[in-house]
What does this fold into?
Amino acid sequence: MDKQVHTSRVGEEFAQEMKKQSQKERFMSLAPLIILLVLIVIFSVTAQGFFSINNFYNLLNQAAIPLVMSLGLTFVILMGSTDLSAEGLGGFIGSVVALMVLNSKNDMNLGAFAIPLVVLISIGVSMLSGLLHIKGKLPSFMVSYGVSSIMSGFAVLSYRGVPARIRDPLFTVMAQGNFLGIPYLTWIAIVTFVIAYILQNRTRFGSYVMAIGDNEAIAKNIGINIEWTKFKVFVWLGLCIGIVGVMGAVRVGQGDVGIGSDLVFPAITSVVVGGTSLSGGKGGVVHTLIGAFIVTVINNALVLLGVSPYIQQAVQGLIILGAVALSVPHGKNLIVK
Amino acid sequence: MERKLLMSMKNIVKQYPGTLALNDISMDIYAGEVLGLIGENGAGKSTLMKIMIGAETATSGELRMHGKNYAPKNPIEANALGVGMVFQEQSLILNLSVAQNIFIGREKRFIRHGFVDRKAMNEAAAKVLAEMEIPQIKASTRVNRLDFASRQMVEIAKVFDAVNGEAKEGSVILLDEPTSVLNAEEIRQLFKHVRRLCAAGNAVIFVSHKLDEVMEIADRICVFKDGCLVREMENRAEEVNEAVLYEAMVGRTASNEYYQLGRQRMPEETVVLELKNLSKRGFFADVSLQLHRGEIIGICGVIGSGKEELCAVISGDEDPTSGEIVIGGKVCKLPSPHSALRQGILSVPRERRAGGIISDFSAYENIYMSNYDKVKKNGVISPKLAREQAEEYRKELDIKLPNVDQKVGNLSGGNAQKVVFARVLASDAEVLLLDHPTRGVDVGAKAEIYSIIRDIANQGKSLIVLGDTLEESIGLSNRVVVMKDGEVTRIFDAPPEKKPEQVDIVKYMM
It folds into this structure.
């Protein structure tokens, strides 16, 4: 019998294949950053006014709301789930916060206190959809779609047709003011990013979310409390949606259900374009930051180039298809449903 | 010398529906020893390990650890009680760092003000890695940046620390095929560490197909066969050698009647399927083989020998990286199982429920699924023709069905498998790949399935069989192909009057 048990030719080849694959993965994780830089270079040359201080602040401003939304979704997607509730819930929070501050419709006027209150409401609703998903074992995608619909309805009911105009001076300051030249809304996004970064990298929660997304069976064997971790993800999502709802109300100056529209799709695009895998366990908040800027830069440049908004929407669709195609594993025997 | 008993098992039985996985196993494990477990795939080693780690519970019997009753409900409880296992499939979270992986689920001691103190965690992990003598692996590296062997070492470090770091007394560590991705130097290191652990009063259970490794590291060797502990011996050079172990692993050969050797025919001259230097990088290499009309070829090899992947390639489920598949003299591409079927190759998968039958469909629907043409009338499926066809097969194969409209999901293993065979026969495929055709089938139905297989071969079809046991592969086949580490190591002729011995085949497998 041959004695070279340890090094078979096929074994060597297997090791080589694994190495190749991990090199490829390494490159893929850098790809979003490279794409962002390439886009910036291209648009600087082709789109007049793109590479300017003014537009830089513009970009920061435009990225603020999508970034907070994407950071909320990042943990959900890292875990391998999806959540669409932001459209209805964000719209509801925006509508309700307008009714709670100094406004054109009622004299409730809770002032600044309204903000933490509506954020708590948002967390509560998100916890509820979390429970339906975790305890009721319903797919997160369908639960959140249902919740979104319900909250959209409640949003319109809350102001009975005509949205409340916000007259609270605090909101005017938040909309227009800046610190160090950076708008307040952008600061909110920056702070949210820092918190998300710490959550992902400096807490057990962050590791556990990654573990669940990578392989839930292993996570269970390791002894991770899976349901509790998932529940916390929904709390974080609710917090982010609450903040986004308020930011939206600040930006449009009234409490309109429309604040929630076009939140979810660009946010999922940002998360996926950044390299977070829809099947979970890969990516993270830094990827989302890059992804959010890729999406914002493209939208911004398309406006500067004078492209029709309908085409912009189509471009966004193409981006997400391209990003998904690049990020999902390819294999003959992969069963995709 | 008085040895300290760490774990004892008494009369452990594990009954799965249809199979007795462990039959009355009693075993003691002592501090300071390396216990080697060997046996064929399916002999019961893995089941026993799963019971020891709490991933399965024994049907009956008693486990004691340190003299106390031991019944962990899951691997975490087992770890806390001093038993840890390095699983064959790695269980690392790829996107976390080495340190995060080593301490996942046990981060408590690194929490400062609610946050993980990464520096302290990395330092502690570095200490664990240094103890394992793999300081070249950095604690802060993400696992997906490591090569496979390093990952395996991290996995081992993690389990060693989880068990040894917390248990006060001697612990038991289970290693399931730990060396399959390691090179010689890494194996040497692993062994060194195993010995160090044992010298410190722990015990290591080492499961491997590589007998030379077992003989090198083990103090004692237990041989499993068909769920029984058939031999237990001290590993002394004068008593133990590979021949002794092979002999113990295979035991006696069953009667020839069972496999209906009288009906085994000489295959015809015509080659129906030829593989020319077929390779799939990383799985198998340079497999060349001719399958003749009416021939049954059995492929033997341990898990990881490449036989599964070879069959996946022949059935069109995977693509080869080089080499040719020649069907009826023509070089063919098999991009999918559907295309393979159109060219005459049909595979019967191992997991009936997952891949062989559609549970919610009736028997007659299942039977026509691989060949609609036979039951079509005026371009659409005729339920009448389909029922008639099914009725014929029901009689021919003696499928126990009240009627052919019965849903297949409720049938017993043997009867469900017969429905699969009816589909196979209706498909008109010339080459059949049977992956464990008798898995989960009781003894009586087995004999009937062997008879069906003989019928099929004698009708001039050709079969490739991955047997459920070595005995089955030998008993059924005209030729036995043995694979090891992705290469064909030997092809045995297996005429009815002179079947090869299992021992001889095992030699080329391990």
In short: Chain B touches chain A through 48 residues (CB under 8 Å).
